[in-house]
Amino acid sequence: MNEHQLNYAEWFQEYPLQVMITLTYKYEHQNSERSWHEARAFVRGVAKKWRIQIAGFFVVNHVERFHLHLFLFADRLDLCELPEPQVVDFWKYGSAKVSCRYSDGINMYAGCNISPDSADDYDLYWHNKRLLNKARQVSYK
Question: What is the CA radius of gyration of the chain?
Answer without folding.
Answer: 15
